[in-house]
């Protein structure tokens, strides 16, 4: 896998998307606010565009109408011929690709920040492609700006062909996950935290655009390894639950032999891996249908090279 | 309002309903377990029947398909003529009334326990009609059996004509609410707590059936006063959120002048009542569509008379 090229020019075309999942309320209501008061997304060198990504799902407060929009930005969906009976989210992914892309083209937006909530006890989590050096610098900046509560970085390794999320349409991008928040609920504490994070993201882009130096650094990240399904009966039904000792312990190490599920029969199921694992998105409501009880990750330290310093644009004379 | 008559005979016909709301998972999975292993609901003098109340909504993990089933057990719905195009839950309410009622008849079940979850920080809460002396004794027993964490009692004053919930179909009944749990999530801790509570409910009925004495007592209860909507803009959209100082503070006193909402504009909205109020179901996900940000209650002490002691049935000779 090769790294994404780092920006050589200021980032002018930036979007902040919310409501990609229509029942994740922080992003839904922040985008609605920004559509009324766009000044909050303005900086001297650019203005970010607020986008309600899945308005139909948002209107009925569901994750999606036909299929998960945030799994629909693959080349296959984006380049297939439109048909009259296709699912709503396939049509909507093409619209967003038209608005913010096309994906993998020089016309695509410079940066998309996609706002999410999770019912899991994930705190603040940034999800991005480890090859996106620009976004890795952004995470580092956000961690320094907002150290309490801690924010963690989940990195995915995916080629351009296999990425499927909204933010993959832009040249650079990132997902923010805040939790725990039930679906369909708007908590003031998470709303404020997300608003503050978005302001910091825009501040970082502004600093980069103005020619600030961002030297190389090392960073602790969680690398996605795969998913773990619930225990199931022969007919596919749940046979047990996330173990009470695992519930809410996102990002905490799980050793081989630790209990991870409690069967309805009363027995414990133990983790059978051969090394320490860091669980993420534990017991996320939306993942039951995806056969995911939690995601597995490993913790590692990555070295990120410096960002090239842009020559600042002269302030226009007035 | 007159009191419900207390039982003069052992309670033989008892039902435990779960999945009345299809995305409240503790009751859904407990009922599924009991349908496989009914022995857990057996006691010497009776066997409780497990009922999955809204199987269609449960199958798609939504609160309801057409309308809220737990608001559909009024005389109007139950006695109106069936039509081919009526909403699923109206048909299902009639089916359940046929199975467990008819409501307000001598053929109705003796007791229905209806199992619910809430996204609000309600802990363990029993909801019942204050005139149901038998159910009030049951709550008192449950509080003594399960003192940690504390369980609270929410009483509603409603006449037989205006009750609308599943448990109102039986001669006596009660709703159990456990929270916080997001919709669509099964937490092992709440699952275990609910299973233990149901066992205690059945134990209480067994004790009553066997002729145990339940003397008069006094009890602290929260009496339902009404609902408070979110602040809204002229077009009906949310204009703010539950205030961070109110979030998760269910059952804690709110004084006049205390902040209850935080507007998106940044302003606080204060409580304008003229006396101490106890908020319940704060920021419950399912109540956004009902225009309820929280319920208001007052705390008071009620005196409950003794239950008449039944003459124990002789153990049948074998």
UniProtKB/TrEMBL annotation, chains A, B:
Keyword Zinc (UniProt): yes
Swiss-Prot/TrEMBL cofactor(s): Zn(2+)
Succinylglutamate desuccinylase/Aspartoacylase catalytic domain ranges (all copies): 11-205
Compartment(s) where it occurs, according to its Swiss-Prot or TrEMBL record: Apical cell membrane; Cytoplasm
CDD domains: M14_ASPA
Gene3D superfamilies for the chain: 2.20.25.160, Zn peptidases (3.40.630.10)
Cofactor note text: Binds 1 zinc ion per subunit.
MF terms (GO), sorted A to Z: aminoacylase activity; hydrolase activity, acting on ester bonds; identical protein binding; metal ion binding
Name of the molecule in the record: N-acyl-aromatic-L-amino acid amidohydrolase
Organism: Cavia porcellus (Guinea pig)
């Amino acid at each position: 896998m090769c790294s994404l090229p780092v920006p050589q020019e200021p980032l002018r075309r930036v979007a902040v998307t919310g409501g990609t999942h229509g029942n994740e309320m922080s992003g839904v209501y922040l985008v609605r606010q920004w559509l009324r008061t766009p000044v909050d997304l303005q900086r001297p060198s650019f203005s970010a565009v607020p986008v309600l990504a899945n308005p139909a799902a948002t209107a009925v407060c569901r994750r999606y109408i036909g299929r998960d929009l945030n799994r629909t930005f693959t080349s296959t969906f984006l380049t297939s011929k439109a048909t009259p009976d296709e699912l709503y989210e396939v049509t909507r992914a093409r619209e967003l690709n038209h608005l913010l892309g096309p994906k993998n083209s020089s016309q695509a937006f410079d940066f998309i920040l996609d706002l999410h909530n999770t019912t899991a006890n994930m705190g603040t989590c940034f999800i991005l492609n480890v090859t996106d050096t620009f976004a890795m610098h952004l995470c580092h900046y956000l961690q320094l700006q907002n150290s309490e509560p801690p924010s963690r970085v989940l990195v995915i390794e995916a080629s351009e062909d296999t990425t499927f999320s909204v933010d993959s349409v832009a040249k650079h991008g990132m997902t923010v996950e805040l939790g725990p928040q039930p679906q369909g609920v708007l908590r003031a504490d998470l709303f404020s935290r997300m608003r503050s994070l978005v302001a910091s993201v825009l501040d970082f882009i502004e600093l980069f655009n103005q020619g600030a130096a961002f030297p190389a650094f090392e960073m602790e990240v969680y690398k996605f390894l795969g998913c773990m399904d619930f225990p199931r009966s022969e007919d596919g039904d749940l046979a047990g639950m996330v173990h009470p000792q695992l519930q809410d312990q996102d990002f905490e190490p799980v050793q081989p032999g630790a209990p991870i599920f409690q069967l309805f029969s009363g027995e414990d199921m133990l983790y059978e891996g051969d090394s320490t694992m860091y669980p993420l998105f534990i017991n996320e409501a939306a993942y039951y249908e995806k056969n995911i009880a939690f995601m597995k990750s490993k913790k590692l330290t990555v070295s990120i090279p410096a960002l090239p310093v842009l020559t600042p644009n002269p302030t226009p004379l007035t």
